[in-house]
Amino acid sequence: MFNVRIERECGCFKRSGMPTIKAFDNKDDALVEANDWAEDMNETFCRKHNFSVVEEGNDLIIKMGMN
Ligand SMILES: [Zn+2]
């Protein structure tokens, strides 16, 4: 099982109603989703934060940084 997880929730994330974790059977699907998800947040959130994908074992963590 491969998880895509949100590391930290900013205000926009909480307001978005998005889940904080999504599980996948294979790593390719998880990687595609993680990149799409981060891109979506970069485009639709406040733009004060930026989101990037980092691999940690079987998990893909979406990290939050400040722009
Ligand atoms: Zn934000």
Task: Label this structure with key terms.
2 helices; binds zinc ion; about 70 residues; 4-stranded mixed beta sheet; about 35% strand; about 35% helix; elongated; alpha+beta; 4 strands
What this model shows, in words?
This protein has helices at 11-16, 27-44; strands at 2-6, 21-24, 49-56, 59-66. It is α+β, with helices and mostly antiparallel strands. It has one domain. The protein has a 4-stranded mixed beta sheet, with helices on one face. It is elongated. The site of zinc ion has 7 residues, from helix 1.
Q: How are strands sequenced across the largest beta sheet?
A: 2-1-4-3
Low-confidence runs of at least 5 consecutive residues: none
Net shape? elongated
Distance between the termini: 32 Å
List how many beta strands DSSP finds: 4
The share of residues in extended strands comes to: 35-45%
Summing up helix and strand content along with how strands pair, one would put the structural category as alpha+beta
Number of domains: 1
What does the radius of gyration come to?
11 Å
**Cofactors, ions and other ligands in the entry:** zinc ion
The share of residues in helices is 25-40%
Concise summary:
The protein is α+β, with helices and mostly antiparallel strands and 67 residues long. It has one domain (2-66).
Produce the secondary structure layout:
Blueprint: E1 2-6, H1 11-16, E2 21-24, H2 27-44, E3 49-56, E4 59-66
Parallel strand pairs: 1-4
Antiparallel strand pairs: 1-2, 3-4
The structure holds zinc ion (ZN).
Zinc ion binds at residues 10-12, 45-46, 48-49.
